[in-house]
Amino acid sequence: MDKHKLIECHERIKPFIHNTPVLHSRLIDGIASSTIFFKCENFQRMGAFKMRGAANAIMQLSEGQKQNGVVTHSSGNFAQALSLAAQSLGVTAYIVMPSNAPQVKKDAVKEYGGRIFECEPTLLARKTATKKIQQEKGATFLHPSNDDAVIIGQGTACKELLELHPNLDYVFAPVGGGGLIAGTALAANYFGNNCKVIGGEPFEADDAYRSLLSGTIETNTTTNTIADGLKTQLGDRNFPIIQEYVERIVRVSEEEIISSMRIIWERLKIVCEPSCAVALAAVLKEKEVFRSKKIGVIISGGNVDLGKLPF
Amino acid sequence: MDKHKLIECHERIKPFIHNTPVLHSRLIDGIASSTIFFKCENFQRMGAFKMRGAANAIMQLSEGQKQNGVVTHSSGNFAQALSLAAQSLGVTAYIVMPSNAPQVKKDAVKEYGGRIFECEPTLLARKTATKKIQQEKGATFLHPSNDDAVIIGQGTACKELLELHPNLDYVFAPVGGGGLIAGTALAANYFGNNCKVIGGEPFEADDAYRSLLSGTIETNTTTNTIADGLKTQLGDRNFPIIQEYVERIVRVSEEEIISSMRIIWERLKIVCEPSCAVALAAVLKEKEVFRSKKIGVIISGGNVDLGKLPF
Question: What counts of helices (H) and strands (E) characterise chain A?
Fold first, then answer.
């Protein structure tokens, strides 16, 4: 990967994504003792940054591959992203979802034209169902985070942020499967002015923190976090990028996540997922370290169940 | 009032307000069967359109008046708006608030530099306290909605919306004290291309609807509505403007308000007050009437108690 690949990717997906707004709050600056610009991917199409990587991954396929469709297993934002990106590009998306996935998630995928295949809620059933669709339909499997085209696509959010604010000292992003933080780190490296990237991760799902320490991909020992988008683990495509380009990872508690989420909702007046709040929580956790710095925070998505808010 | 007064007002207050973003959602368009552009005054400074009118009203004062400060009675957004506008302009703001006002509202006023005078929660006590400050401090009383400078200031939100989308068929705004709807109606008349303005009002606080019918300012018989910003009544400065320039008022139920609020939060991913949802609820209530039209909706503010959401 290099700078030009990310530039080409951005040009390629521009017709299918929003250049999302960047918000700023003097009151949050006051709380943080720094200047923070929030890149609001909750306003992205289908409500999350995942639209970027999904669009890029599909567009990188050959015409023959596109005709046979794409398949993924996800009950989260990537399922919606792949469905909408595929619909926008005239491609069929097959989504393998566990039978116990919330109805609202299934409805969202259907709304965007995704074709759902339900399976038992086990890892084996999920893999078997996915394999079957690959074989029967000839569909191409796309991974939500461990795919070069997806990683580069996710990096375009940070690229847009740096186009508006070229002199950021830091960009913070949450760490889940690793696609967003890896893409963000590449973009900051290519387009920033000595801009460092720091990940935010819940103590309750700190696989990436421990992976950076041990030098090998670790799994989560618990996933007891409100940040439900961050329960996944890193992969062999994104981990080397994270090792090379991510400064470090700051872990935060559930209380810190909820408190930061409340700050974002109350002060920025936006609806965001708990996962997004992890990045702000990381800034606030070490506010003395980042005092007076210019900081970007990636607000990763806004698909939240309003019936299950923590406040 | 004329077109040039509104243009001058807008130029005057521009350094003190945000030109707030306009959001659009294909999914909401699908629900409404029309094209809706949301002018997001929840992103305005202090979180509501009231900043516009407050800034304009203070800037219209003489130097001598500014030195003696301004006073209002409000426990809502105008208290915060007057405090922040005054602070930005180096003027003292005295805010008369009932002693039983929520602590969070008092804190917000203090945060913006307003000086709070508490009074008993009665109309008489409020008026007495206000009068006392006018006499003792020489402060100028500014009304939250029944003041020409305030009305014109509120109209700048619709002016900005029409600058982006000049061919709107309709603009919807909620009707509370009448300042926003009157200013919106003036702006649509001056800057729209045959753009009609329609008010949204809860059945439970339908004083303006009845005022237009009877031709005289009516009071609310109930104020049992979740839209707590809309419990006030019209005044003699804004009522004639509303009579002349507002097409009509559509009343909506509490269920319709909550349902529309949920649509805004879930689809636009923004935090807004129940009052804002009244305007969208009015569009949806008569969606057949407005089918295929280009519609603006003023999202009036985002200062909501996250601990008391209706979902």
Answer: 13, 10
Return the DSSP state at B48: B
Q: Which residue has the tokens 């991954």?
A: A57
Q: What is the dihedral of CA A83, A86, A90, A94, to 10 degrees?
A: -60
**ipTM for the predicted complex:** 0.93
Which CA distances in Å does A195 have to A159, A309, B123?
A: 12, 34, 57
Q: Tally Cβ neighbours within 10 Å of residue A134.
A: 17
Residue A133 CB burial class (10 angstroms; 0-12, 13-18, ≥19): buried
Distance of CA B27 to the CA centre of its chain: 26
pLDDT of residue A103: 86
Residues of chain A contacting residue B42, judged by C-beta atoms under 8 Å apart: 269
For residues B262-281, give the mean pLDDT: 97
Which token pair is A139?
């569909």
The proportion of chain B whose per-residue pLDDT surpasses 70, expressed as a percent, equals 100
Find chain B residues with C-beta within 8 A of A311's C-beta.
306-307
Helix, strand, coil abundance in chain A, percent, nearest 5: 50, 15, 30
B53-105: per-residue pLDDT in tens? 999 999 999 999 999 999 999 888 999 999 999 999 999 999 999 998 888 88
How far apart are alpha carbons B166 and B163 in whole angstroms?
6
From the candidates B105, B259, B269, B306, which should be mutated to test the interface with A, based on the most A CB atoms within 10 A? Answer: B269
Q: What is the C-alpha to C-alpha distance for residues A83 and A79, in angstroms, rounded to an integer?
A: 6
In chain B, where do the E strands start and end? 22-23, 35-40, 70-73, 93-98, 115-119, 140-141, 170-174, 196-202, 246-252, 294-299
Beta strand residue intervals within A140-268, DSSP E: 140-141, 170-174, 196-202, 246-252
**Confidence (pLDDT) at B65:** 98
Interface membership of A47 toward B (CB under 8 Å) = yes
All structural domains of chain B, each given as residue ranges with its CATH number in brackets, are 3-48+148-308 (3.40.50.1100), 51-141 (3.40.50.1100)
Helix-, strand-, coil-residue percentages of chain B, each rounded to 5: 50, 15, 30
Q: Distance between CA A155 and CA A163 in Å, rounded?
A: 13
The dihedrals phi and psi of B21, each to the nearest 5 degrees, come to -65, 155
